[in-house]
């Protein structure tokens, strides 16, 4: 099972220097150092060191801060985002495979809220439990979905939906041999340094 370390834990891999953006975006959100640190589960001294470049944040820290500041990890990292179209045409939705799942971007990339159409085949990733910051909403288009949330298991049919906090341990699997197709929206804030929460990651175990 995946686990989340505390936000102040030492990162295994550091990310690019983000000090200038961290301070500017906190001020743009009209938050004091103390208030932002408290909301992110950090000490004010630790957040101050991040803002002055004395320490580098882990990805969980960036996810927490981006959510609090109402922005994306991309903006925290100072990445420039090209102008995004409001409309995504079906012809432009290229399928991408990950861990046996197939998904199509149904919204503009680089936003805090990501929208996808997803096909989950039967038997794919049924034992992988996920825990990560954010919220998820899903709507079953075809087939039946077996959704595990914490200790409860739910069977969803076409037309059913679910909306939950992603810090609740969750597991998604297709109930029927033909698989299940979903509309899927999540607030796992995206950047090139953060992978979509679909498909197993290297070294991941159930």
Detailed description of the structure:
This protein is 20% helix and 24% strand. It contains five helices and nine strands. The chain has helices spanning 19-28, 33-40, 44-51, 59-69, 73-76, and strands at residues 96-98, 101-105, 114-120, 135-142, 145-149, 152-156, 161-165, 170-174, 180-186. Strand 2 and strand 3 (114-120) form a beta hairpin. Helix 2 packs across helix 3 (44-51).
Sum this structure up briefly.
This protein is an alpha+beta fold.
Keywords:
206 residues, alpha+beta, 6-stranded antiparallel sheet, 3-stranded antiparallel sheet, 9 strands, elongated, disordered N terminus, disordered C terminus
> What is the strand arrangement across the widest sheet?
1-2-3-9-4-7
Number of strands: 9
Low-confidence stretches: 1-16, 189-206
How would you classify the helix and strand content by structural class? alpha+beta
Helix content: 10-25%
Secondary-structure topology with pairs:
Elements: H1 19-28, H2 33-40, H3 44-51, H4 59-69, H5 73-76, E1 96-98, E2 101-105, E3 114-120, E4 135-142, E5 145-149, E6 152-156, E7 161-165, E8 170-174, E9 180-186
Antiparallel strand pairs: 1-2, 2-3, 3-9, 4-7, 4-9, 5-6, 5-8
Helix pairs in contact: 2-3
């Amino acid at each position: 099972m995946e686990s989340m370390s505390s936000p102040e834990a030492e990162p295994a891999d550091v990310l690019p220097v983000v000090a200038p953006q961290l301070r500017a975006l906190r001020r743009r959100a009209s938050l004091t150092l103390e208030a932002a640190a408290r909301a992110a589960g950090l000490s004010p001294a630790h957040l101050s060191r991040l803002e002055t470049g004395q320490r580098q944040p882990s990805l969980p820290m960036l996810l927490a801060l981006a959510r609090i500041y109402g922005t994306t990890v991309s903006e925290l990292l100072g990445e420039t985002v090209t102008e995004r179209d409001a409309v995504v045409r079906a012809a432009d939705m290229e399928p991408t495979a990950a861990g046996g799942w197939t998904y199509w971007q149904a919204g503009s990339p680089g936003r805090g809220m990501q929208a996808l159409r997803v096909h989950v085949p039967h038997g794919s990733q049924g034992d992988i439990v996920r825990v990560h910051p954010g919220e998820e909403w899903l709507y079953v288009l075809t087939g039946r979905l077996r959704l595990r949330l914490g200790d409860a298991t739910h069977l969803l049919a076409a037309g059913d939906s679910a909306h939950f906090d992603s810090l609740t341990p969750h597991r998604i699997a297709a109930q029927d041999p033909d698989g299940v197709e979903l509309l899927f929206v999540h607030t796992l804030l995206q950047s090139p340094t953060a992978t979509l929460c679909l498909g197993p990651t290297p070294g991941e175990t159930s």
